[in-house]
Structures are given as C-alpha cells and as structure tokens.
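Quick check before the chapter quiz. The format below is the same one you will see on the exam, so make sure you can read both the input and the output lines.
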Amino acid sequence: MPLRLYSHEIAFHTPYLAMLAREAADGFAEARERFSRIPRFEALDPVRATLIEALEVSAAEHGFADWREMELRLRTIQSGQVDERSIDFFHKVEGGDLAAVAAHLDAEPELVNAVASTQKSALHSVGSAAMAELLLERGADPRIETMLPGGTALMHATIWGWPDVARIIAAQDRAPGNLRVAAGLNDVDGIDDAFDATGALTAAARASRAYYRPNYGWFPWASSDDDQEVLDEALVLAATNGHLEAAKALVRRGAQIDGRAYEATPLLRATFRNRIEMVDWLLDQGADPNGTGWLGGHAKGVTAFHLAASDGLVEIIERLRRAGADPRATDDLYNSTPAGWARFHGHPELAEELAKMAE
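Here is the expected output.
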C-alpha cells in the first residue's frame, strides 16, 4: 500500500530524504531496505546514494511515477487546487482531536491503517489513550510494523514512554511479544517467562528488536543480539515508562543500572520522561549522575542534568545534585552546560541558579 502524504511542504520532505541518503551510504539497514524495495534501485550501490535517488524512493513509496510528479502534486495541494485528506488526518491524530479524526474516518475509513510519509501509521502517531481507543474501535491494526521489524504501535508507544497508550494497544495485541514488550508493560511474569529453565534468554525474548526510533529524525543505531544488550535495553524501556517493578526484576536478572541502548542509559530516559520515583531508585542503585548519552536527534553527549534543565524539572535537578551531578558538564553537540540548556528552553530563572552552581 503506498504511503499517504503527511505534509504538502517540499521543505518538510527534503531534509528527511537527505538523511535517508546519508544513512543508506553509511550502511544502516532501515535506509538500505527502503532503497532495495524500489525495483529500479535494487542494483544501486547504497554508498553512492544521493538526495536525487532518495527523492525518487519517496516518490515511489507514495505511488508516484517519479519525484517530479510528486512535487507537482505537493504544489497543487499547497496552492489549494486539490485537497489531500491524509495530511489533516495525521495531524489531527497527533493533536488529539477526536472529533476531527472521527469525521475523517467517516469520510475515508481506510485512513485508519494508512502509513504516512513519516513511516508511521495513525496508531503509531497517537499520544493519548483516548485516541488509541478511537482508532482501534475503527479498525486500526496493532500488528502493522513500520520502519523496521518489530516496529508496532505498541513498541512505538513504549519507546516514547507513553504507558497509557501502550496498555490500550496491548489489550488487543502484544506484538512483537518480546522482552521489550514485557518491560514496557511492567509485566514481571512476562519478564520471568523470557528466560528458560537454565536462566538463558529465550529466542522469543530477543526476537524482532530491529526497530528503535519513534521518529525518523532520531540518530541511526544498530542493535545486537548480545544477551547483556537485550537486558539493558529492557531496563532502559522500563525506566522510560516509570515501571519500577519491571526494573527491579530486570536487575535481578542481570540488567546493568548504567547499561546502554539507543546510546542512552536508564537514568537519561527516566529523566527525559520525568519519572521521579525511577530516578530516585536508579540513583540509590548507584547510577552515574554524570553518565552521558544521546536522545533523539538534538541531544548528543548530554547528561541527565542537561535534560532536566531543558524541561525545568527542579525535583530531578535537586536529586541529581545531591548525587553529585556536575553543573559544569558540557554536551557534545552544542558544548553547553545545563544552565545553557535551561536558558535556551525558556527557563531563565533556573538558568541563573544553575550558572551559580557552576561557579
């Protein structure tokens, strides 16, 4: 089924497609698979992929003969000559407008399982339990995978840290049913079932782990089948969703408090979602308050202090300081301290306080 348009803005599409070309050249599976699905590019050496080829890949994915045809379509939509219902539909899903989404589905029911230019279906795009319920009632398929194997809407919600959405989807289907899912649902019995009688991870527990990023703009990352990584990744997801019982069960099974997945640690992801109880527990267990990692595409080499400062999370900042977090730490992308992150993100008073801490 062709992708449906998410935006009529050419400037929306081209940066992501330039990224697609770079990632294909760098060898990342998701990008190379998108090229390989287009017959005319089956023989293309991905190292030579450019924006020109990426534009053609996107056009083919959307059902157009070539990029010129897709560009003309975008321009006619932008000028108001034609209407493309999918664009407003996907944005209303993201915005939580239940009435507007219902009206769109009344007019075009098949939109419920359409996949957008962003590589996400509507169910992948929800941020509220109410929207997830509406889409599922209208026939949304929770087993649709996007981007990479294992990329179900349940996994998308789990990686973002939307436990309420995850619970609604899981009530219908728990695909891909691996250890990631058990951790993201706070399912301690499911975590125990992920190990065989000898204490080794089962094949089902480690299966379908290629998917890892909820937005295409996130940095590329390649998973491995290493047992420790599988365990540490599950702890990162439990921390993201604030699932303390799952986190404790995973640590008993060998997950590392400062283990890494997606170039992040449990403390970074717990801070990202303001999981105060989880932050307390991780720090009590010896988590490094100055550990660094990545988050999305805009945070590289950050500490939990940077993330807490950017969101004005005073309670977490206090906990990090007591644990020895360094207010002078700088990130790798902007070479900025937590005070700089607080100032940039609109917390001037907090920025002044953090700057004094760093003196």
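If your answer matched, good. The chain has a mean pLDDT of 95.
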